[in-house]
Amino acid sequence: MSFNSKYHHSAVQLQEEQVIIEAAKTNPEQFAPLYDKYYKQIFGYLYQRMDCKDTAFDLTAQVFLKALTNINRYEYKGVPFASWLYRIAHSELMQMFRDKKNKRAVNADIGDLRHICEEVEEFYLEEYIPVLKKAIAELDGDDLQLVEMRFFEKRPFKEIGEILNITENNAKVRMYRVLERLKKAIVAK
Amino acid sequence: MQPKFNIDRPKVSDEEINKHKDFDKLVKDFKEQSIQKAKSDKSWWKNKSIQYSAVIAGITVICTVTYFSLFNNQTKKTDDKTITKKEQSIKKPTPSKFINEPFEKIKVNYTSYKVNNSKGAEIVHPTNSKIKIPKNTFVNKNGQEIVGEIEILYREIHDQAEIIASGVPMLYDSAGTKSVFESAGMFEIKGMQNGEPVFIKQDKPLTVELASKQPEDRFNQYYLDTTAKNWTYIKRDNPVALKLPETKHSESNAPLVKLAEKYELAINAIPKRIDSVKVVYTTKINKLEKPTQPAKPNKTAGRPQFELDVDYKEFPELAAFKNAMFEIGNENENFSKDLIKVTWSSADISEGPKKGINYWLTLKLRDRTEKLVVYPVLNGVDFETASKKYEEKFDKYKTLLAKREANEQKLKAEMEAKQAAYLAQQKKLQDEYVREKVRIQQQMTSSINSQIKSGGISAAVSRVFTVLSFGFYNSDIGRPLPNDKTIEPIFVQNGAEKIEPYLIYLVETNRNMVITYSGSSSIKINIQPGLPYTMCIVSGKSVYTVSKEEFTKVANGTGTTFNVTKLGDEITDIYELKKAMGIGQS
User: Which residue of A49, B9, B13, B583 has the lowest C-beta tally within 10 Å?
Assistant: First the structure.
């Protein structure tokens, strides 16, 4: 499993993106390149965490409207613009769940669960699936986010840290602790 | 409620995703939303519930003010008691000010500049930062233009020690997300006239080109809002390359170059002067009259002789040899008596192998040539007369020779004296040059040290700020606060004496970051293991430091006790704090 990401940018790419952001601050029409670039990523992030596709599309539109409305408050922090969009998306998603307009869902492939077994140094067995599903579903919001980002969305730790506003090392430490818990669940089976 | 778990849900195709993309709708929604917002902003006061709320709020304020007026004295007494009690039980000062300079003596000093408001100015700070002040930019509190000089107070904060000493807060709150600033440089600028603050006209901002050692393009500009007690984002910082280093280098070496030009020119000219003295005196010596040694008359030895007619002008030494005969020398191995019998067509005399003593006699007859060494000799009375004359001439010769030798010695002595004077001058210049060079180098080292102290050396870029208000500005970036490991530190001096800190500065040494922890009871610090840290601790009026090595040792182990080193009470120079914390020494 590789953790290549579209998220990461070179210094030049960051600089180019910054020019677009500054232009969008004065003219909303200039926001188009950012919309095109990140639409699929934000939709994917939202749909990953819910069941209803249409709601995911609506929420994506809402995220971008919020981003455009607040773009003047955006501050460059040395990371791609996407991290800011992910935070808006996360906030909108949580609001939606709080308003009980939609139910939280977790979406994974069998391959992803197989990878989790490998990570905790256990052979993959068919019978582990329900155990893992239960253990993952029981994780709290932050830990579930970590598992989703790392194993289901295949993001590198650096990117996870930037999106969650924690250090890369902290993301690793927390992931390690979550995996320990998942391992315990598998071993107890 | 637990989330629903789906396995292998079908993916949404790119085509379907793209179908939902509608940028025009986004812009339309944005514009409609903006119009709605503008309308609601204008009509908010017409809302009945807001009007009622305002009336209720007004009544509440009046009641509150009345209550406090009535019970003011009582409350004041209680407060006084509390303060007295606090002073008695806790001697630790609790930092309450927003900008809290922790040290009594160690400060980041301001540099004062005088600027005539009608003229404006371009100030170059020792760190190579520039402050550009337009004409008539300053006004007083009533908005009237200032007449005359104003005083600009300016200081820069470049590293962790300066961050600590300045007391500038480094915590940043961006919409509830707290982070700590990593700094690429900060400055504070203030303006005063006769002790009164002055203000900047909004259409005539100042420009500060902050020379920064951090060349990376990943920082934002912020202004410290002391009312809101938070930094305010200004814009993305775009550093520009500082053109100074090359110029600065040549400028800083200029005194040495000038000195070398002055002295090396003078020193290098001296050997040439010594040579020319030699040339002049050698010519003078050569021009001294050289007396010709008279030839000593020889008495005939009885060998065959030739009588020759000699031109005495050509051979003056033979003048004494009147009636001289030329006797064949023993060295002529080819001589035979037959040669005397031949009548030669020519006989020429020329200088011989021993100058002034013998001569070559060249005899020719048709194709035949014979060359013989001959000696001038005299016979009888002629010899005696010649001997007398020779004696006279030889005496005269000796006198002349002695005189010449005396003159030659005199000239040589003069020459050597002059050469020695030049050599002495050369040595004097060389010594002077070395002394002056050492002095200038020391001066330069001291200047470099003071630049290092002020953080103004090796600036790589310039960060350009538009200054609309006096205060603190920075070029920083927010970083997540470390939270991987929590330590409740205990500080001891000399292995036993416990130190009670009220301020702990956690310094990340590989980044320009300082995290401040304060409190009157136990303070916990959060770190990210693996990163290099040092600490500065303030307890009462004393300052202590924890070295990088000590920090790593404790952080990597299970203990929480840090050995501290006390900074001397007499220290006033921030450079000493930097040294103690190992800042800028890697």
Answer: B13
